[in-house]
Amino acid sequence: MATQPIALGPDPASLTCPHCHARVTTTMKAAANTKTHIIALILCVCLCIPCVCIPYCCDSCQTLQHYCPNCQAYLGSYAN
Ligand SMILES: [Zn+2]
């Protein structure tokens, strides 16, 4: 059986982990993506250097990554 891509949203999802086959609720981590870097660059050019940290602290500017809390496997991501 092929592993199907998992449709994941901005909230923790309840699913069966394809790696350890446990029924889990995903844990989420925010990761910087291209949009984060672009916003940081714009802030750097237009405003001031300390502002570039803003997009890295703002979840809406980052990709949310879902992980299995049981086996720590990466399950998928949700890009805003
Ligand atoms: Zn797992």
UniProtKB/TrEMBL annotation:
It comes from the Eukaryota. It holds the Pfam family zf-LITAF-like. Its main location: membrane. Keywords: Membrane, Metal-binding, Transmembrane, Transmembrane helix, Zinc. It is found in: Endosome membrane; Late endosome membrane; Lysosome membrane. GO terms for molecular function: zinc ion binding. It is a peripheral membrane protein. GO terms for cellular component: late endosome membrane; lysosomal membrane. The keyword Transferase does not apply. Residues 1-80 form the LITAF domain. The chain crosses the membrane at residues 38-57. Belongs to the CDIP1/LITAF family. This is LITAF domain-containing protein. It comes from Acanthoscelides obtectus (Bean weevil).
